[in-house]
């Protein structure tokens, strides 16, 4: 892992996007270790605060993590009329969970994270991320996502897959069988949300997921929003629903008062609509 450091800079180099690198200046390494599943690194950067890295790939930074967490949580939750039961697959750092419990409609949340060490390290070094881990609405299960879903039938209103890149422990979360398992675990009218990387770097992934999901779900949409420390500075969000209402229009519109009470800094109802407007090269997948 330490090979990624040179002259006090951390450099992310990933085989999924060859020919480019992203670097952050390091002030202090706070944690470096290996779990049963992956390398885990936390460091204090000069300009982005604390940074969590898994297997050499940046997962979140203190400065911009809220953008990703809010979109992953509030896009699907406001697209459902009454999201009482929610499952988060992955997301052991607690960021998406923190946003999900802000919705009073949500009664029960299950966090299914394969690597309990990620949560332990996040609690120690990223405490603002893990504020909801011990919430009375929350149940934490340490299991592989596909295995956990095989035992679930019509259990959830919303399922959010907050996995890492489609390599290593998260590879199975991008395969056709996984989307079938998600469907069987949804209640009638339920929906899913999954991160789908940048359309600039992963057009093949988007085409593949689009083809798979349109065969399973009646409503499939892709949203894209800015995310400074992710590859190409943006992130794709795939939403699929068992109902036919357009996902680019929120079913529940958060008022300005609600947005303030939730402490939102990125998601708004206006943003919800805007992020589904895609550039023509990405729209050719027929989202």
TrEMBL record:
GO molecular function: spermidine synthase activity
Protein's organism: Eptatretus burgeri
Catalytic activities: S-adenosyl 3-(methylsulfanyl)propylamine + putrescine = S-methyl-5'-thioadenosine + spermidine + H(+)
Pathway assigned in UniProt: Amine and polyamine biosynthesis; spermidine biosynthesis; spermidine from putrescine: step 1/1
Keywords: Polyamine biosynthesis, Spermidine biosynthesis, Transferase
Catalytic machinery residues: 162
Biological function: Catalyzes the production of spermidine from putrescine and decarboxylated S-adenosylmethionine (dcSAM). Has a strong preference for putrescine as substrate, and has very low activity towards 1,3-diaminopropane. Has extremely low activity towards spermidine.
InterPro entries attached to this UniProt entry: PABS (IPR030374), PABS_CS (IPR030373), SAM-dependent_MTases_sf (IPR029063), Spermi_synthase (IPR001045), Spermidine_synt_N (IPR035246), Spermidine_synt_N_sf (IPR037163)
Subunit structure: Homodimer or homotetramer.
Key word Transcription present: no
One BP term from GO: spermidine biosynthetic process
Protein name, UniProt field: Spermidine synthase
Domain called PABS: residue spans: 7-242
Family classification: Belongs to the spermidine/spermine synthase family.
CDD domains attached to this UniProt entry: AdoMet_MTases
Keyword field contains Protein transport: no
Pfam families with a match to the protein in the record: Spermine_synt_N (PF17284), Spermine_synth (PF01564)
EC number: 2.5.1.16
CC annotations in GO: cytosol
């Amino acid at each position: 892992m330490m090979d990624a450091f040179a002259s006090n800079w951390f450099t992310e180099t990933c085989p999924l996007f060859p020919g480019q690198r992203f670097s952050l200046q390091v002030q202090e390494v706070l944690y470096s270790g290996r779990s049963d599943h992956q390398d885990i690194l936390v460091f204090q950067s000069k300009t982005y605060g604390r940074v969590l890295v898994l297997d050499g790939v940046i997962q979140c930074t203190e400065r911009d993590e809220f953008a990703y967490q809010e979109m992953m949580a509030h896009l699907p939750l406001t697209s459902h009329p009454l999201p009482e039961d929610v499952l988060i697959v992955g997301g052991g750092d607690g960021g998406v969970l923190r946003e999900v419990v802000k919705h009073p409609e949500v009664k029960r949340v299950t966090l299914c994270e394969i690597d309990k060490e990620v949560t332990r390290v996040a609690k120690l070094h990223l405490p603002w991320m893990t504020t909801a881990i011990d919430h009375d609405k929350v149940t934490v299960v340490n299991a592989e996502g596909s295995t956990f879903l095989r035992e679930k039938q019509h259990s959830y209103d919303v399922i959010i897959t907050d996995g890492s890149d489609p390599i290593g422990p998260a590879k199975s979360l991008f395969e056709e069988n996984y989307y079938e398992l998600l469907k069987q675990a949804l209640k009638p009218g339920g929906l899913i949300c999954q991160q789908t990387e940048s359309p600039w770097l992963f057009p093949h992934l988007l085409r593949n997921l689009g083809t798979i999901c349109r065969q399973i779900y009646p409503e499939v949409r892709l949203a894209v929003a800015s995310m400074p420390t992710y590859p190409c500075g943006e992130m794709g969000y795939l939403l699929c629903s068992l109902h036919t209402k357009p996902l680019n229009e929120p079913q529940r519109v958060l008022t300005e008062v609600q947005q303030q009470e939730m402490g939102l800094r990125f998601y708004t109802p206006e943003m919800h609509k805007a992020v589904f407007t895609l550039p023509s090269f990405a729209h050719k997948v027929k989202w």
